Amino acid sequence: MSSREKILADIKRNKPAEVAIPSFEFTATTYDNVVTKYMETLLGIGGNCNVVKDLTEVNKILSTLVKDQEVVIGISELGGYNASEYAFKDAAALEGVDTVVIEGNYAVAENASIWIPEKNMVNRMLPFICQHLIIVVNESDVVSNMHEAYARIKVDEDGYGAFIAGPFKTADIEQSLVIGAHGPLSLNVFIISADK
After folding, report:
1. Cβ–Cβ under 8 Å, residues 125 and 116
2. Are 167 and 155 in contact (CB under 8 A)?
3. For 70-122, what is each residue's pLDDT tens digit?
């Protein structure tokens, strides 16, 4: 018997007994009012949220928020839609972008994250390179927890995507908090109300 065969035989002989996979039963946290919980959670991490009637109201608010800055509008129903101009630009060309407005697919109340598939990002870099990120999501797409969000995501359709919550921040061991170090300085979310 070679050394290799001896080692493998010893490993096989001393293999620990198999252990049954533990059951994975749990009850996910749910909320009676997911929109209220989402807004509270987002406010707690430094973001801002407004419930609005429709995209017309979003347009009005945008006109007061963004003035004389480079803005990318990635929702075709909003005035000033210009996403096609930015779809294939590189990071150097996107450096001056101040504000990005995109649509989110699912908002998660427990952690205030929003699933953004690549097709909604316009360009993969835009949600991370801009100074201010604005995301629009439908009230019917606000869910209690990540389990509900993952159940709705269609990976075969979405491909690449990201859960985004913000604004982006980091802190070091000296407890010095820096906002916007790795992404936007602010996140504003508009929830389109289901009540028409």
Report:
1. no
2. no
3. 999 999 999 889 999 999 999 999 999 999 999 999 999 999 999 999 999 99
Specify the pTM. 0.84
- As given in the structure block, the two tokens for residue 32 are 């009676």
Backbone angles phi, psi at 129, to 5 degrees: -95, -20
- Tokens found for residue 184: 């936007």
Domains contained in the chain, CATH given: 31-192 (3.40.50.10420)
The Cα–Cα gap between 190 and 107 comes to 11
Q: Are 120 and 133 in contact (CB under 8 A)?
A: no
DSSP string, 31-73: -S-HHHHHHHHHHHTT-EEEEESSHHHHHHHHHHH--SS-EEE
**How far apart are the C-alpha atoms of 100 and 89, rounded to whole Å?**
14
